[in-house]
UniProtKB/TrEMBL annotation:
GO annotations of cellular component type: cytoplasm
Organism phylogeny: Bacteria, Pseudomonadati, Pseudomonadota, Betaproteobacteria, Burkholderiales
SUPFAM superfamilies per UniProt: FAD/NAD(P)-binding domain
Keyword Magnesium belongs to the record: no
GO molecular function: oxidoreductase activity
UniProt xrefs under InterPro entries: FAD-dep_OxRdtase, FAD/NAD-bd_sf
Origin superkingdom: Bacteria
Native species: Paraburkholderia susongensis
Stated name of the protein: Glycine oxidase
Domain FAD dependent oxidoreductase positions: 8-336
Keywords of this entry: Oxidoreductase
């Protein structure tokens, strides 16, 4: 791109959402500039810390139907996105295993009831398989004999978050996006562009005052001898936990969920809880090596839904991805890209046009009905 010409789009924030939106817009031939306060690796983003599980059914235990439907569609979209990126990304669709210790067995029917209430029927059909005894060991040999019962959610997936961020950065370069790493942008220093797309996550709080952070802590450990083949979720009344196996013996163990925008390092309590729970799933974690203990905050709107806010002029904000960013990003980014392109070419200019657009949108629930108003 000619760096001196005014870009069609300035994307603020180069975490997960900003990278994906900028890369998609550039792929449609637009001139795009991206501004990220942190580095090209993505270390300042919530996306850097995330476990990147793509688990709409397991998440249905706490997420509503819109989220699980976005997650189901995005699971199908990710392979297409990854196939177009210039670097390989670990992507797995080998299911989620849900287990519980005998003492916590009352958690199981609660989990099942919530999942069945919030998941789309097409995900549940054949996607929620009860396992008992030897069946569980056959499905996940590393856990043979350790749990009496469990559920296999065979269609769920996961990917490597840091590989996605790196591959998207390479994709931005390949598509000629004018990237400005280590460049914070605030309302007083907005870059020139046709349309501004604000994907700053929690960094957008000055303009989205109802946005809040929900702190999450994870451990990254190296346990090459363990051989879990898919993410495992442990039901527990106080310390629900997941263990997501990535490549080369790397495991992401998470995550706490604490109200508040505390970005300080992981607490001793959280480290003990996460690591003890992992050890209770498999004692082999006792010999694992702790590579990192990380904390970050999930950008969250009051209703825990993602949203696309149009300011009535030239700015679109994409935010509120909460704990589901990876799970829903392809669909949310698609909707944002379609809307942004319509803004650029003048198809949306007033409330009537917006209402018409919203009626026709694939994911109309992502748009607040009254575009000029933030969520209550
Ligand atoms: C512990 C934890 C575990 C998670 N696990 C999962 C999971 O398993 N599955 C899943 O789907 N999701 C998971 N998530 C959620 C996921 O990480 C987020 O939903 C996602 O990262 C949100 O994407 P985003 O682009 O909106 O925000 P971010 O990824 O936070 O990106 C925002 C970017 O904006 C930049 N920025 C901020 N302010 C400015 C500024 N003023 N100027 C320029 N740049 C700025 C930031 O540096 C950052 O790079 C997890 C999150 C956490 C914290």
């Amino acid at each position: 791109m000619n760096r001196h010409a005014r870009p069609d789009f300035a994307v603020l924030g180069g975490g997960l959402c900003g990278r994906l939106v900028a890369w998609r817009l550039a792929g449609e031939g637009h001139r795009v500039a991206l501004y990220e306060r942190g580095d090209a690796a993505g270390t300042q983003a919530a996306a850097w810390v995330a476990a990147a599980m793509l688990a709409p059914l397991a998440e249905a235990a706490s997420a509503e139907l819109l989220i699980t439907r976005l997650g189901a569609s995005s699971l199908d979209s990710w392979p297409r996105v990854l196939a177009e990126l210039p670097e390989p990304v670990f992507f797995q669709r080998n299911g989620t295993l849900v287990v519980w210790h005998h003492a916590d067995r009352t958690e199981a029917p609660l989990f099942e009831r919530r999942v069945r209430a919030n998941a789309p029927a097409e995900l549940l059909d054949g996607g929620f398989v009860a396992l008992a005894g030897a069946q569980l060991g056959a499905a996940e040999p590393a856990l043979a004999g350790r749990f009496n019962q469990g559920w296999l959610l065979p269609r769920e997936g996961q990917l490597d978050n840091r590989q996605v961020l790196a591959a998207l950065a390479a994709g931005l370069a390949e598509r000629g996006v004018d990237t400005h790493w280590n460049t914070p942008v605030n309302e007083a220093s907005l870059p020139e562009a046709g349309i501004t797309i604000d994907c700053r996550g929690l960094g957008a709080k000055p303009v989205l005052p109802t946005l809040r952070g929900i702190r999450g802590e994870v451990a990254r450990v190296h346990a090459p001898g363990l051989q879990l083949t898919r993410p495992v979720r442990l039901l527990h009344p106080r310390y629900p936990l997941y263990i997501a196996p990535k490549q080369n013996g790397l495991y992401v163990i998470g995550a706490t969920e604490v109200e508040g925008e505390d970005m300080s390092p992981v607490s001793v309590r959280s480290a003990l809880e996460l690591l003890s729970a992992a050890f209770s799933v498999h004692p082999g974690f006792g010999e694992a090596r702790i590579l990192e203990l990380n904390s970050q905050c999930r950008p969250t709107l009051p209703d825990h839904r993602p949203a696309l806010f149009w300011d009535g002029a030239r700015t679109l904000r994409v935010n509120g991805l909460y704990r589901h960013g990876y799970m829903i990003a392809p669909e949310v980014a698609d909707e944002a890209v379609r809307f942004a392109a319509a803004l650029l070419d003048g198809r949306i200019g007033d409330a009537d046009a917006f209402a018409g657009w919203r009626r026709e949108a694939r994911w109309s629930e992502l748009f607040p009905q009254d575009f000029a108003r933030e969520p209550a």
